[in-house]
Design goal:
The protein is an alpha+beta fold. The protein contains 8 helices and 18 strands.
C-alpha cells in the first residue's frame, strides 16, 4: 500500500510550534528538503544543529535513491527486475522485514506487492481510471507479501516474475527514524522532523513542554480534529481524504487499497488512523494496515497488541483512542471520544 510516497501532497498532520526558542537563536536551525516526492522540514535545537541537519539531509537523499521505485539503480528497481534476487542494502532489508512482520500480524492488510494495482488505478502516474474487474482479478494473482523472500545473511531479496514491490507504506517512517538518530548522535536533544506529514519528535520543546501535533479534520483539512502531545516518538497518519480521484460514475476512490479485493478502501467506518510510537517504520506501516482493516478489525487489533498507541477518526466523527495516550490527546470542540482499553 502506498501513501504519500509518489506525490507531493498536503500533510495530514500539523505541528504546533508555539513555545519554542526564538528562531533567531544561534542554537536553532531549520532546513527544508524535497525528497521522496514530498516536502520535508527538519527543525533542530543545539550547538551542532546546522551540521546535524545537513548530515540528515544527506541521509534522506541516500535513502531516496535506494528506495525509489522509479530510479533504475535503486534497490527496489533491482529487486523488481531481477530473476535471481538482488543484493540490497541493510536499510532495505530492515524495512522489508518490518513490513513482513506487520503484514503477518494484520493478515495481509499491509502488502508491499500491491504496487501494480496502484498503478492500474493511476495512483502512481496521476492517470486515474477504474480498472475492469477482470484486470483487477488478473493482477491480484501476483499480490502476496509471502512471495517476497528475504535472506538477511546474504542481503538478498527475491520476488517471482510479475510480482513487484514498493516500500511507500514504510519508507518515510524509516527515514524519520534515521534522521532522528543522526540528529541525536550530533548533539540535538530537541527537534521536530516533518517528512511530508510523518512527524518524528526528538525530546521535548526547548521550553520543556511536549511537542503538539495536530491531526487534521478529514471533513475540513484546514482545521484539526484533535491534538496529540509527543515526546521522543513518531506520529504518523493514514487516510484516503488527501489523495483520491472521482470516477466517471461519481464515486470517490482513495489511494489505500484493500488487498483482498484490489479496490480502494471504501466506507469501512474510518476516516483516518494515527499511530504513535518510538518505531517510526512500524508506525508508518501500521497506520496504513489498520486503515485498510476497517474500524471493527482495527479496534480489536489494538485491544490485543502493544508497542504503540493509536487515534482513530471514525466515520461517525468520533475519536477512538488507546488508553496509553488518552491523556495526551485533546479533541476539538464538540468531538466525542471513546477510550480503547488494553
Amino acid at each position: 500500500m502506498l501513501k504519500n510516497r509518489l506525490f507531493a501532497v498536503l500533510p495530514i498532520i500539523m505541528i504546533m510550534l508555539s513555545g519554542c526558542t526564538d528562531k533567531n537563536d544561534s542554537s536553532f536551525y531549520s532546513k527544508d528538503v524535497f525528497a521522496m516526492d514530498t516536502f520535508m522540514t527538519i527543525k533542530a535545537y543545539g550547538e551542532n544543529a546546522q551540521t546535524a541537519a545537513d548530515l540528515a539531509e544527506k541521509e534522506i537523499m541516500r535513502l531516496d535513491s535506494l528506495l525509489s521505485v522509479n530510479a533504475p539503480e535503486s534497490d527496489i528497481s533491482r529487486i523488481n527486475n531481477s530473476s535471481n534476487g538482488a543484493v540490497v542494502s541493510a536499510d532495505t532489508i530492515k524495512i522489508m522485514q518490518k513490513a513482513a512482520e506487520i503484514s503477518e500480524k494484520t493478515e495481509g492488510a499491509l502488502d508491499i506487492t500491491v504496487y501494480p494495482i496502484l498503478s492500474e488505478w493511476g495512483f502512481t502516474t496521476g492517470k486515474y481510471s477504474v480498472p475492469s474487474k477482470e484486470r483487477i482479478s488478473e493482477l491480484l494473482k501476483n499480490v502476496d507479501y509471502k512471495n517476497v523472500r528475504i535472506d538477511e545473511e546474504k542481503s538478498t531479496v527475491y520476488v517471482p516474475e510479475n510480482t513487484y514491490t514498493e516500500l511507500g507504506s514504510a519508507a518515510k517512517g524509516y527515514t524519520g527514524d534515521r534522521v532522528r538518530d543522526i540528529l541525536k548522535e550530533n548533539g540535538v536533544k530537541s527537534g521536530i522532523i516533518n517528512l511530508g506529514g510523518n512527524v518524528c519528535a526528538i525530546g521535548r520543546k526547548p521550553d520543556g513542554s511536549k511537542w503538539i501535533v495536530g491531526i487534521k479534520d478529514p471533513d475540513d483539512t484546514e482545521k484539526v480534529i484533535c491534538t496529540v502531545k509527543a515526546e521522543d516518538e513518531s506520529v504518523i497518519t493514514s487516510g484516503n481524504y488527501e489523495r483520491f480521484f472521482i470516477g466517471e460514475d461519481g464515486h470517490i476512490y482513495g489511494h489505500i487499497i484493500d488487498t483482498r479485493t484490489g479496490y480502494p478502501v471504501d466506507d469501512n467506518g474510518l476516516l483516518s488512523v494515527t499511530i504513535i510510537g518510538a518505531d517510526g517504520t512500524m508506525c508508518d506501516a501500521l497506520s496504513t494496515a489498520l486503515f485498510a482493516m476497517g474500524k471493527e478489525r482495527a479496534l480489536d487489533f489494538c485491544r490485543h497488541e502493544s508497542g504503540f498507541e493509536a487515534v482513530f477518526v471514525g466515520s461517525d466523527r468520533k475519536l477512538y483512542i488507546t488508553s496509553g495516550i488518552s491523556r495526551d490527546v485533546e479533541p476539538s470542540e464538540n468531538i466525542d471520544t471513546e477510550v480503547i482499553e488494553r
